[in-house]
Structures are given as structure tokens and as C-alpha cells.
Amino acid sequence: MAMVYFHAYMYGPLQGKVRLYKDRGIPARVAMSEDWEVFASILVRDTGTSTPSGLDLEGYEVKSAKDRGAFEYQYHKNSWKQKLDADRKAGHIFISHRDDLRHVDVRYCEGNQLLEFFDLWESEEPYSRPGTQRFRRSIPYGWVEQNASLILRIEDGEPTVQQD
User: Fold this and answer.
1) Is residue 89's pLDDT more than 80?
2) DSSP assignment string, 71-105
3) Does residue 53 have a pLDDT over 70?
């Protein structure tokens, strides 16, 4: 079902628009974060209901990045500790894509595998300084590639690696 969604609402429509966008010098937005959340929700069979903890799905955080970019986490002033706590307990789905979705890798790891990041970020006490509005940190692509499990690879719209 996740591949049906990917083809019908992400890959197919984008491939139809890419040439038109490029001919006019307009950069195409590949996918909205909500598209990746729906795709991931179907893939992991999660209800997809956002929780008060701030997770993207019921038990998962979904991150996407283009061209081997880092995966950004953002914490808000009044709920950063609760969100960090939820991130420690959640599963994390990392989606990297390139070439107008012609290559997509989906990787997964448990929150307890990311404690080195979460503990460091918490130790920074981000909102202890006046005027701080947003706290953003990233997990490098290289760390994700080496430590998270590859659960799906899509090449030219077709799955070439798939784990159940």
C-alpha cells in the first residue's frame, strides 16, 4: 500500500511536472513533510495520529532529507523536554531521496540508538538563554546510513530492497 501511495501521490505527479518546471527554471518541491508522514504511516502500519508528545505518528518520528543531507529535529520552547523524552522512546524513520524521487532510501532505528544525540542536546539546556525561540539540531546522514537499518530502497519508482 505504501508503494501505491508513493506512485499515485508523490512519484507519478512529480515526474509529470519535473520537465515543465525545469523548462521554466522553477525548482520543483519534491514532497511535503506530510507526504512522507502518510507514506511512513502506511509503511509501518501506524495509525498516523499525531500525539500530544509532538511525534509525527503514534509511535514514530519521521525525518526526510535530500541528497544525503542531515535530518533536522526541532524543539519548541514550552515542550522541548517532553518531545525529547518522546523521541527517546519512539521509532525513527529516516527517508533520504535524490533525483526527483528516482532514488529513495528508508531507514529505521529505535530511539534508544540515538541517545548520544538526545542526551547531548538536552545537556545544552536550549531555552535557558533569553530570546531563544527555536532549538534545532541534526543527525548526520552518515550516522543514519551506518547505524539505522535499511528497510526500503526505491529506484526509478520500484522497490529494490524491502524488509518486512
Assistant:
1) yes
2) EEEEEETTTHHHHHHHHHHSEEEEEEEETTTTEEE
3) no
